[in-house]
């Protein structure tokens, strides 16, 4: 008996509100298909901002800031699919989501791209403006991490002003439901491919690390330099 698919949602909202309601709707859609659905609320983790070290483009090892980001990254790597969900704040992604993208991406994910070929979905929540811009930003982040991005036909953008308004946006919630179902469909197809072939969807190993000035091979990229303590 195969294990149920695991979806992990990253909630970039600073408070419990419309984005939380949308993810609860997404969770219900996932569970209808027998998939697990967990949420990481970034407001509840310890997350430092990127520090003044400035060596991210030359560092051959993960970030050393002591917080909960590496644990969230491990949970992402263990999941079959990941939802990135953020409200629009100040015409852009909420600050917690932006900080997480920077810390996780620059500090951990860029070394061997462990999210490659995992299924990704994006949800943005807005009063009216910039829902598409934030959706596009999170979409670009998923593509940077070489994930398999699926859509819902129309982007899964939900419009809300006051608490509870997201649950009144029937069109937006319909697109969220479609997104979750398509994510599960794609994850099942990829799992079947792996079962039948014993292989992942291939990415050339020499293409793992695209940073200028560092070794392209994943093993070389993650190994400490000679003599390092």
Structure described in brief:
This protein is of the alpha/beta class and 229 residues long.
Using brief descriptors, characterize the structure shown.
229 residues, alpha/beta, Rossmann fold, 7-stranded mixed β-sheet, 7 strands, 16% strand, disordered C terminus
What does this entry look like structurally?
With 229 residues, the protein is of the alpha/beta class. It has six helices and seven strands; from the N terminus they run E-H-E-H-E-E-H-E-H-E-E-H-H. Strands 1, 2, 3, 4, 5, 6 and 7 form a seven-stranded mixed beta sheet that branches. Helix 1 (18-32) packs across helix 5 (170-197). The longest helix has 28 residues, at 170-197. It is globular, with a radius of gyration of 18 Å. Pfam families: FMN_red (PF03358). Residues 6-157 form the NADPH-dependent FMN reductase-like domain.
